[in-house]
Amino acid sequence: xxxxxxxxxxxxxxxxxxxxxxxxxxxxxxxxxxxxxxxxxxxxxxxxxxxxxxxxxxxxxxxxxxxxxxxxxxxxxxxxxxxxxxxxxxxxxxxxxxxxxxxxxxxxxxxxxxxxxxxxxxxxxxxxxxxxxxxxxxxxxxxxxxxxxxxxxxxxxxxxxxxxxxxxxxxxxxxxxxxxxxxxxxxxxxxxxxxxxxxxxxxxxxxxxxxxxxxxxxxxxxxxxxxxxxxxxxxxxxxxxxxxxxxxxxxxxxxx
Length: 256
Description:
Elements: H1 4-17, H2 21-37, H3 41-57, H4 61-77, H5 81-97, H6 101-117, H7 121-138, H8 141-158, H9 161-177, H10 181-197, H11 201-255
């Protein structure tokens, strides 16, 4: 991701010189996603807004709806829920005009998540149910797990513990058949809470222990990856410095 940043800036400059607004909008969206992954949220927001502006001016409706959805997701991540809802609603209007069922269901899931965070559960649950039904019919197993857990969280907050428990069990069952450690941790954490609420304390403890074990494993893997990334960056910079030094030495020899 660190290396992707300058690469995107180069293609943005090329698109700008060619006065290609649609590609500019597309590349700014990709650059924003890199900033978001790196937790550079202010830069991500600016890049998303640039993407939306270029695409709005030049008729890239579907791509603009995607950028609006991504900006809404960013605002949801940094707890700007009202802004996220506004962007999701605008994206939903465009996807509806474009008759994109995938786009509409994606945004409805995001809207449901935003409403759940805002405590507007009566509005959130129908959207999340519709989103889950679409995902089960059309998308991958991993997306099924995410959708089960999103709806389960809303039911848990609403006090429908039995429904939340059932959905979390379905999510956990899928994670045990597939390698989705983060989702598996989240499913165990939710089942710990739902079992505690139902006074099934032994099961609650077992799920909590499983969740904590997976959390420790994920943190260890993340730490190992960070060390590998830093080492790779150091070796790359060291090699580049050596190459530059050789170039200088060659130029000096040629000059003499």
